[in-house]
Design a protein that fits this description.
The chain has 257 residues and is α/β, with parallel strands linked by helices. It has one domain (2-256): Ribonuclease Z/Hydroxyacylglutathione hydrolase-like (Metallo-beta-lactamase, Chain A). 26% of the residues lie in helices and 26% in strands. The protein has a seven-stranded mixed beta sheet with strand order 6-5-4-3-2-1-14. Strands 7-8-9-10-11-12-13 form a seven-stranded mixed beta sheet. Bound molecules: zinc ion (ZN) (2 copies).
């Protein structure tokens, strides 16, 4: 399995792109940054987009990807995969012919460029060589993280969340677990805003790693707010001094496992 970071920042500005990870060339895990990072040829290989929640920084490039691909007369259909309540929200609030065209009906309902594929929480879904399992997390809108597996390896991705239990339970008992990708949006000094927006601080990360209780895996950090990058990195380095497990992700990093 190969995972390429298309964007991993908690905000957009030059040098910082919204969240998206590309798994094995054909599957996106969140879609905050796609069309500005992948060539049209690479975009045409996408078959699945796995979505954690409907906040724009995780879904916005689904819209531009659909807009690009519908003009290519090859009958491309992309599966948009998430928990049913998240797909309903996406359809009602975004793909509603007001904010953006309803690409689940275009060019025709039979060969639409986007197909919504529900993935029930807690149930594994097979997508070619990988399986995914949505696990509820704790954010300001309904949100899930995922356990992603192939035959040899597994990883957990929290998406956006504040302190939560279930995904750490699931990850800790996964025998093939190789790494986790965890959001740490804010430094500890921004605890009030972190709590209000249901994101994690460095302290929350330390608490979460105790829940995970696995010293044998790498912890990749995503979604840091660039306004507080240095402060957050210093705090994460202090945690790394204790566990030697923390790596901060950057755009275009590739994890092979
Ligand atoms: Zn969010
Ligand atoms: Zn976000």
């Amino acid at each position: 399995m190969k995972l390429r970071v298309l964007g991993c920042s908690g905000a957009e500005m030059p040098g910082h792109k919204a969240t998206a990870f590309l798994i094995n060339e054909d599957t996106l895990l969140d879609a905050g940054t796609v069309v500005s990072n992948l060539t049209l040829e690479e975009q045409m290989k996408i078959k699945n987009v796995i979505v954690t929640h409907t906040h724009l920084d995780h879904i916005k490039d689904i819209l531009f990807l659909a807009d690009n691909l519908i003009l290519i007369d090859k009958g491309i259909t992309i599966n948009i995969i998430s928990a049913p309540f998240i797909l309903e929200s996406l359809k009602m609030h975004i793909l509603n012919d007001a904010i953006w065209p309803d690409f689940t009906m275009l060019p025709t309902i039979q060969d639409a460029v986007l197909k919504l594929v529900p993935a029930d929480v807690g149930v594994e879904l097979v997508l070619g060589d990988i399986t995914i399992k949505p696990v509820k997390v704790n954010h300001t809108v309904p949100a899930v993280g995922y356990i992603v597996k192939n035959k040899d390896s597994a990883f957990a991705y929290t998406g956006d969340t504040s302190l939560t239990d279930e995904i750490w339970d699931e990850a800790s008992k996964e025998p093939k677990l190789k790494f986790v990708i965890v959001e740490t949006s804010f430094p500890n000094s921004m605890e009030r805003i972190a709590n209000a927006s249901k994101h994690m601080t460095s302290n929350d990360l330390a608490i979460s790693l105790k829940k995970l209780g696995r010293s044998d895996i790498t912890v990749y950090i995503t979604h840091i707010k660039p306004q507080f990058l240095d402060e957050t990195k210093n705090e994460l380095n202090a945690i790394d001094n204790l566990c030697s497990c923390i790596r901060i992700l950057n755009t275009n990093d590739v994890i092979e496992f």
